[in-house]
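To: structure desk
From: M.T.
Subject: fold request, one chain
Message: Could you run this one when you get a chance? Sequence is below, nothing fancy, just the single chain.
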Amino acid sequence: VQLQASGGGLVQPGGSLRLSCAASGSIFSSNTMGWYRRTPGKQRELVAVITSGGSTNYVDSVKGRFTISRDNAQSTVYLQMNSLKPEDTAVYYCNLRELHITWSLNYWGQGTQVTVSS
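Reply: Done. Structure tokens follow.
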């Protein structure tokens, strides 16, 4: 499985960006797709996750501003980021986690830089 992320860039505070991540290969049907982010000196943080059934979860700091969605037919996950703040600046990584009965397997995209600055 390979994940190809796109959509990062430089945006002013209050602006919007949309990240996309397309998965290719043989994908196990029971899975979650999500976005993590990492800033220098900090651990990687889960931003948002969505199950194959469409259930979502967000870190508190992005609730009401970010929306995660997925297109199962295209094996693609999106992250719509609105009202961006400087503290959202990070490298964003997409993730696909296969959920097997007693184990899981993670795949990662290459990371895309999001910079929020005036």
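Reply (cont.): The radius of gyration is 14 Å. Let me know if you need anything else for the meeting.
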